[in-house]
Amino acid sequence: MQVFNRTARVRPTPGWASCQFISGGEQEIGGQLLRNLEEEAAKKQFHKLVLFTFPFNTLGQGLYRKRGYREVGIFKDQGILDGKYVDVMIMEKILSTNQKEREL
Predict the structure, then answer these.
(1) Quick check: 46 and 64 in contact, CB under 8 A?
(2) Which residues have CB under 8 Å from 27's CB, separation 6+?
(3) Where are the alpha helices (DSSP H) in the chain?
(4) How far is Cα 10 from Cα 17, in angstroms, rounded to an integer?
(5) What pLDDT, on the 0 to 100 scale, is given for residue 99?
(6) Which of 13, 23, 48, 103 is deepest in the core (most CB within 10 A)?
(7) Comparing C-alpha atoms, which of 86, 91, 41 is closest to residue 70?
(8) pLDDT tens, position by position, for the chain (104 residues)?
(9) Among residues 70, 74, 73, which one has the least CA distance to residue 85?
(10) Can you state the angle between helices 58-66 and 28-43, rounded to 10 degrees?
(11) Are 90 and 73 in contact, with CB atoms under 8 Å apart?
(12) How far is 59 from 5, CA to CA, in rounded Å?
């Protein structure tokens, strides 16, 4: 089980990337970082991006939805934050726009 806390270090796993987006001033910084990540993923021919967020992170979810992400599920009691179990929301965005690419 992953334990969540503010000082936890992210341990990269091959094939996965982890980012934290900073929201502020109309979500400008977070939005630009997310756009850049999506552009790089598209250049590398990624089919989709998947992200994890806390259900109470409504500001972040607004940014993700604005960028075309959709909620695909909730992991119940996925980790511990401040001594309490917390849920984690999964969101995704399909990058492939060509139907033939999707059928591969």
Answers:
(1) no
(2) 59, 62, 63, 66
(3) 28-43, 58-66, 99-103
(4) 10
(5) 52
(6) 23
(7) 91
(8) 344 444 444 444 445 555 555 555 545 788 899 999 999 999 999 999 999 999 999 999 999 999 999 999 999 999 888 999 999 999 999 998 655 555 55
(9) 74
(10) 50
(11) yes
(12) 19
Q: Which amino acid is at 45?
A: Q
Pairing between strand 70-81 and 2-3?
A: parallel
Residue 101 main-chain phi, psi, to 5 deg:
-60, -40
Q: Are 91 and 51 in contact (CB under 8 A)?
A: yes
Which residue type is seen at 63?
L
Helix/strand/coil for 97: coil
Tell me what percent of the chain is helix, strand and coil, each rounded to the nearest 5: 30, 30, 40
74: number of Cβ within 10 Å: 11
